[in-house]
Amino acid sequence: MPDREAGAQSSFLPYGRQEIGDADVKAVVEALVSGWLTTGPRVARFEKAFAQHCGAAEAVAVNSGTAALHAAMRALGLHTGDEVIVPAITFAASANAAVYEGATPVFADVDPDTLLVDPASVRARIGPRTKAIVAVDYAGQPADYDALKDIARGRGIRLIADACHAPGATYKGRAVGTLADISCFSFHPVKHLTTCEGGMSVTEDARMAAQMRRFRNHGIDSDHRAREAAGAYAYDMTELGYNYRLPDVQCALGLAQLTRLNKWVHARQKVAALYDKALTRVPQVTPLKTHHDRTHAYHIYVVKLDPALDRDKVFATLRAKGIGANVHYAPVYLHSYYRARGYGAGLAPMAERAAKHVLTLPMFPAMTADDVTRVVDVLKSL
């Protein structure tokens, strides 16, 4: 019979995993039997609670982080021909949301030590059609918002925070969610808290929040619950919107999860500290740099491999040993969709170079010191 250690070593360690507890199940069941499955009271409760957690005035719940980004682009009033500056290293949705509104993504390079957008590269790409900058809090570390605001100031350029990796992080003592005109979050299952799928747009601007609420509901000026309360049936579609609503059942799950967000962020930071210490024994594997004026939420834990190492071989070896390594990300403009539209290699040299050598190691709150040792021992053996 295999011993407990051998059994543990044979189990698969995913790169990310969410926790679902009894309180989550109870909250979802209560929503299921409440009579409101969608556009009910739990939507507004979740929005209010999340806004308070961020220290923001308004929050708008939607059915994905992508929908949050799209709603933000619409609220900023983008049109065909406008340009939006986006980091080269990010998930495709950061750029796609601009395309949905007819705008053109302009890709900025990244700092090779952090993979956060390089403000100097952003400044160099500002043009007469630039209407917005997307700051991506890559891996969970906030971008340099003060530098980006300095670039935008006086130019009529708005700032969107793609904070999908960073709920609970801070920048110079200020919470993520209060650092841009609109901040966007994701509640995908591998994120810090989950609603299965879901997202949130957070802002101080009540007008933009009202527009995003219409936008998520087909552009209609009221939802079913409001009409039910008023004893009315008539509504007006004031603009072309989408069905981006987040149901009450999922908001119930989000409310239950939100109470543990701070605990989970702290647990991720402890896992990162274990990695940082253990990887000092593996000089060919370098964690990304973290800035002392920010707190890192660690959605993912990303390292850079020495160029002498074959990243794909390291990836395959980790996977073969039951360790769920991943890669985040290839430069967005190198995807086939963007290549077919005229983008190509050479736009962001630092991003292209880094993308060949980055590797994402497992990171989730329930990871133990033994899990970290297991990952690092395999890296050391290579």
Describe this structure in words.
With 382 residues, the chain is α/β, with parallel strands linked by helices. It folds into 2 domains: 237 residues, Aspartate Aminotransferase, domain 2 (3-Layer(aba) Sandwich); 121 residues, Aspartate Aminotransferase, domain 1 (Alpha-Beta Complex). It has 15 helices and 13 strands. The protein has a 7-stranded mixed sheet with strand order 1-9-8-5-4-2-3, with helices on both faces. Strands 7-6-11 form a 3-stranded antiparallel sheet, with no helix packed on it. A 3-stranded antiparallel sheet has the order 10-12-13, with helices on one face. Strand 2, helix 5 and strand 3 form a beta-alpha-beta unit. The N terminus is likely disordered.
Largest sheet: 7 strands, mixed
Number of domains: 2
Tell me the number of strands. 13
Cα shape: globular
Q: Examine the secondary-structure arrangement and name the CATH architecture of the largest domain.
A: 3-Layer(aba) Sandwich
Question: What is this entry, summarized?
Answer:
By secondary structure, this protein is of the alpha/beta class.
